Amino acid sequence: MRIVVSDYAASPQSGGTFSILEDFYNDVLQNDSQNEWIFILAGKYFPTSANVRIIVRKDLKQSKIKKLLFELGTGSKFINQYDPDVFISLQNIATLGVQSKLKIVYLHQSIPFYQEHRFSFLKKDERKIALYQRLVGKVIKYTISKVKPITIVQTNWMKRAVVQQTQQKASKIITVSPRVPVINDNQLYKNQQTAFFYPATAYLYKNHQLILDAIRVLNHQGIKNFKVSLTLTKTQLPTANQNVELLGFIPREKVLRMYENHVLIFPSYIESYGLPMLEAAQKADLILAADIEVTHEVLSGYSNVYYFDYRDPVALARLMRRVIEGKVSSDLGPIHLSYRNESLLQTIRRIIEEKI
């Protein structure tokens, strides 16, 4: 069977998007010698084998117009020349016109399905998000509505959103949580009351400003005996507040250690999953999380989470103050993940077995 995979948007600088591709590619390389795999990528990032090869389309990564035309027209001719039995898009969009028995889209971009706020092209800090929400989002929803592929999402809230916004049948949408590393070191949170932590990138929807505003509320109340550590640089978050510690990028091993003596603050309001929450919960960490669907879904049944309105710095400050004053603490009961969710390759194999 010949399987063609499209993910030319991913590159080593793409963060989580590239991690999805890298994990999937390595899984295919190591665990599938039966099928022929063709990956359409922006570069020859990985080793190949007798049955796994890479077709480089760097031009699509470099031009948004070319990418759009590829997905809506020219791409089908290019892909169809390889005569795929299965076509898989790892980049959210269902390429139009592909003639394969089975089409699969891995939909991991949640911004287009967020409807509580309409981001503006007129605001500099919102332009990139507005592009994804209002333009790229339309392409994603149109192609899924048109092609009707099997669509893989990470959470049930995303499944509901896709059904509502694309008219795709729920039976064609599969919820598969990403594989979560199981932490077995038994080093639990030490109920530290004055240290907070938020490992996140500098995207607007990660909501760092809410934390800064909550700190100002606490300072105004005379509370200054605490520290909030963020994985940003001074360039990304120019602030002189003495309660803020800017760590820059730190490796995952250090992130896991930080959960042991820091309360996790998670104010992000757009998430496809939110891996830091499950990492922290395995450490029995105290978590202050935005009151949104995905946080409730991911932390379902966890006893050490407190929710706040992600638009209200006073609400976050109130929770932080309760922690600082010792009125809120962890019961030291971690969430136990005795399983590992199936890999993306395992999910795709299951779909192929059922559909072909």
Q: List the total number of helices.
A: 11
What is the alpha-carbon Rg in Å? 22 Å
Strand order of the largest sheet: 3-2-1-4-5-6-7
Distance between the termini: 10 Å
The helix-strand sequence is EHEEHHEEHEHEEHEEHEHEHEHH
- Biggest sheet details: 7 strands, parallel
- What percentage of amino acids are in beta strands? 15-25%
Strand segment tally: 13
Q: How would you state the average pLDDT, rounded?
A: 93
Low-confidence stretches: none
User: How much helix, percentage-wise, in residues?
Assistant: 25-40%
**Dominant shape:** globular
Structural class: alpha/beta
Concise summary:
With 356 residues, the chain is α/β, with parallel strands linked by helices.
Record keyword descriptors for this entry:
globular, 13 strands, seven-stranded parallel β-sheet, 356 residues, alpha/beta
Q: Would you kindly provide a written description of the structure presented here, covering whatever features stand out?
A:
With 356 residues, the chain is α/β, with parallel strands linked by helices. Helix content is 36%, strand content 15%. It contains eleven helices and 13 strands. A seven-stranded parallel sheet has the order 3-2-1-4-5-6-7, sandwiched between helices. Strands 10-9-8-11-12-13 form a six-stranded parallel sheet, sandwiched between helices. The chain is globular and about 70 Å long.
